[in-house]
Amino acid sequence: MRERRCRLPGRHSLFWKLAVLLVGFCLLMIWLSWYWGRYLETQNAFLSPESRRVLNGYAAEAEQAWTVGRQQGVDTWLREVRRHEQGWVGVIGHDLQSLSSVPLDDAQVQRLTFMRGVDWPMSGRQKTAPWLKIPFPERPAAGSLVIELPERFKPGRHALFWQMLTNAVIPALFTLLLCVGLYRLLIRPLNQLREQANAWRADRLSNRLSPQMTSRQDELGELNRAFDHMAARLQSTVQIQQQLLRDLSHELRTPLSRLRVACDSEQSLPELRERLSREVDGMRRLVDDTLHLAWLDAEREKLPNEDIQVLALWDMLVDDACFESCWPYRQLICDLDSECWVRGHLNTLAQALENILRNAIRHSPPEGLVRLGGRRDGEDWLIWLEDQGGGVDDNDLERIFAPFIRLDGARPGDGGFGLGLSIARNSLRLQGGDMWAENTPDGLRMTMRLPAREVAASLPAVFASKPAPTGSALN
Question: Once rounded to an integer, what is the mean pLDDT over residues 278-294?
């Protein structure tokens, strides 16, 4: 079994946008839990700068009191400090003996073994306040201030608030930002598609998505463009179907009026039967061609292609055209050789070529020439049919392909319903080709573009039988 290779999405894929969004969210959460968490832990475990400034000031005052007044100075200073500090305060020397006149008891001496510095972390789990040892600023060896940490200086008093902020509020805000990003990336485009679908349901087929949505380069952009194209095709199809229905109803009025006149006339039965038969046949051809044109416009899948030799197809069509028009073969000239092969659907290509051939015969003078030519153009063949019918006005070169368009006075000849060229062009476009018209010095040139296919084999079996009757209605 062939091993399947895993292909990464394109650089404009929605996958990368989602990946960047989710990776950014994860990095923010990691930063929140590590850097910000450590910062808050530090803030909640250590004394604030203001607290350390006050405590170091006490140590400087105690040093000043010892330097100036010795024990009496320390006693005076301690009495002054204990007026506004509730905890224990003492001054000791380097031998851990009291520098005041009051010696330390055993419990106090025991507490001296667990003293902390002002720069040390303070545990929030202790039930009793820690004792801090603050050396004299000028002469640290002379002594130190020992003070039970005042309640107002204890760190972590707002620890619960910061924990709630860190573990709940900020993650919730980051998650909200993630949801906003996902909404802008995914939900909002889908909401616009939903609004577009609701507009269709309300028969507002002209509504289109905004250029901002259709210009995206990811999968949603492709979906938006496909949706917009589908809307345009749907609107075009509905308009064409409605126009065809209006044109068909208009075209049927004339034969129906003639039928009414024929029924009310006093013609003999054979004449009346002939008139009815002719009018019914005309209406049948009109309805068949209109339905065929509607099918060609509604059909979106390309027809199955096969190799077609244009020269062989031309020979078969010329036989039918000469029989119907009584033109001699010498007036229908083919400049293509047997090397001209195209890819297409045989019956639709035969119908298109037969339509423009009969159209050229109808509009050419009785002794005129109709010439088939072509040349290779890259991967395509350009095949054209020229007549000597005098051409049409340049402004009408595109109008002649519209359904039920029949130009008056520009070219001789009459008959038809104005559907032949519409059917021919739609047939070619359905098989990957195209058709257009241009004037020549003598008449009109109809050019067809079809995919080329080099074939060295002999005439294939597809030409063993004549293509299916096209039943075309010509311009």
Answer: 69
